[in-house]
Amino acid sequence: MSTSRRPVAPEIFQQPVMLDGQTLRIEACWLGPAAAVQDPQQPLIVFLHEGLGSLSQWRDFPARLCEALEMPGLVFSRPGYGHSTPRTEPWPQDYLQRQARGLLPACFAALGLADRPLLLFGHSDGASLALLYAAHAPAHVQGLVAMAPHLFVEPVTLLGLQAARTAYEQGESLRKALARHHADTDSAFYGWNDAWLRPGFEAWNIESLLRGRLPCPVLAVQGVHDEYGSLRQIEAIAELHDDTRLVALPDCGHSPHKDQPERLIAGVRDWLPGRA
């Protein structure tokens, strides 16, 4: 009889968060040994998902990265996504800036992380959010991985958004795929898609909010064949922040953690502040 054991799936819990007088429900899970998770001096990797993402859509990548780096982690679905509180109104066009100033501090306080050193790992919208939060709370962030970030809107970005809307409204595969990860698929899809396609959003740009304000080393990663943005996105980070390492992954689209997970993990391990 085999004595091998399957890895224990991390326990997902619901965390109440107070924001603007409203109680939000956030689905979250901790990764790593309990002693490391509970140690307030131990840096914690916080994973911030993309505009259509959620806790479950990361699959096993956060656990793999935490294991490779020997660090604890936190994965959660922002409101409007996964099994967190659904969105009740349209996202404003500055929703990422607002979430960096309000939602993330509220979540971190509710989870007892107000003074915890953090390594932020953001994907797409989550990468932009990680950059904005680091600029807003510089004492809180020790390092930052920005994967397929958006600093400004490009024509290819709008084309990708329009293609996604067509697929969601006229086909079945995208809607069914999202339904596996979101309790309310319209909340997840239209919150993101409506905000970006609303007239005027083509002028959205966060470069001025980041220039001279990022407090930590940044690893900026993008797939060469990213369908939502060009390499100008990560190059712009290097232009406004000297302590930036750029990684352009070949044979890779908008989701390096799915297309090139081993290369990505190796790149983060090589870059990680204090380990190089």
Would you mind describing this structure in some detail?
- GO terms for molecular function: hydrolase activity.
- The chain has 276 residues and is an alpha/beta fold.
- It has one domain (18-271): Alpha/Beta hydrolase fold, catalytic domain (Rossmann fold, 3-Layer(aba) Sandwich), CATH 3.40.50.1820.
- The chain contains 11 helices and 8 strands.
- It has helices at 34-38, 61-69, 95-110, 125-136, 155-170, 173-179, 185-197, 207-210, 232-240, 256-259, 261-271; strands spanning 12-19, 22-31, 44-48, 73-76, 118-123, 141-147, 218-223, 244-249.
- An 8-stranded mixed sheet has the order 1-2-4-3-5-6-7-8, sandwiched between helices.
- Helix 2 (61-69) links the parallel strand 3 (44-48) and strand 4 (73-76).
- Residues 1-7 have low confidence and may be disordered.
How does the SSE layout of this entry go?
Elements: E1 12-19, E2 22-31, H1 34-38, E3 44-48, H2 61-69, E4 73-76, H3 95-110, E5 118-123, H4 125-136, E6 141-147, H5 155-170, H6 173-179, H7 185-197, H8 207-210, E7 218-223, H9 232-240, E8 244-249, H10 256-259, H11 261-271
Parallel strand pairs: 3-4, 3-5, 5-6, 6-7, 7-8
Antiparallel strand pairs: 1-2, 2-4
Helix pairs in contact: 3-4, 5-7
GO molecular function, one term: hydrolase activity
Protein name: Alpha/beta hydrolase
Domain AB hydrolase-1: 45-265
